[in-house]
Amino acid sequence: MSDDTPTAIQSIEWRGDHVRIIDQTYLPKRKVYSDIRDMGRMWEAIKKLRIRGAPAIGIAAGYGFYMGIKELPESSFQSFWVEVQRVEEYLQSARPTAVNLEWVINRIKTTMQAHKDKPISKIKEIALETARTIHDEDKRICKKIGENGVKLVKKNSNILTHCNTGSLATGQYGTALSVIFHAHKAGKKVSVWVTETRPLMQGARLTAWELKQAEIPMHLITDSAAGLLMQRGEVDMVIVGADRVAPNGDTANKIGTYPLAVVAKENDIPFYVAIPLSTIDNNIDHGDDIEIEEREGEEITSFNGSQIAPKKTEAYNPAYDITPNKYITGFVTEKGIIEPPFDKNFEKLFDE
Question: 243, 250, 281, 321: which is the annotated catalytic residue?
């Protein structure tokens, strides 16, 4: 196994006074590191998917938030806090669907508020400490997700996954891919169907790259081939990640997830969603409350810098879709496997 094992890949690192990311827009051709020293560049990196995946977006936003507040005036807490909220609004505009971005900033702000009587310089340090703590926690959580999910995977399973949910999308290990990595490590001899994930090809570019590094057998397929494979009995389970989950289990994930869940249900194939519990948004009721990010039409009309549709073709490019809870077999979390009824079982977890 190469040095780029699932446990070695670091999509984002704090380097003393700045952040270093793997710029995922260059993968798989080149592994390019990018140093980010200010909030504006972090906003751009999140918006342009240089760093992506809900947990990684949250981690990046935490560091970006610190970068945005570290030079703010320290005359009074009240005036400082007004500017803090402007920093928050700016960062949240980068990717509105991924709840982890909002969750991380809210957690940092809550911690800062708890220390508001301290000097503002100290409060800034606390913000950075909290961001680093969240980053470390995500690594442990993703490892636990993988360990918990192994029991769902039978020996010699053919697993289908969508988009990218590995170390590149998190602090380390991943969510859905963490389950696959740990199943492979446990000797379950899994093989993976990887959807290309149009239009930005996160499956083809990123998931395939991570699985190759881990030496896990895989086949890349077009998004539209998944139904045929399920119909033929060549898929034993589907496991994906998520960017936001409603308390009733309705799930926002990369566009194309919903039809996979429908076809899996039609063919009696278990469909699992692997998430940290921070991905559950308790401020909403169901999937209809989730804002769907719409991206530039050029991502569809062009590919790798080349025009593939007639000029001036109008395109509709939602980044996510909503999978209703009835199509989901269960959620793999750091606290175990959550089965229906999701609303009651999620509530029990948060009450613990």
Answer: 243
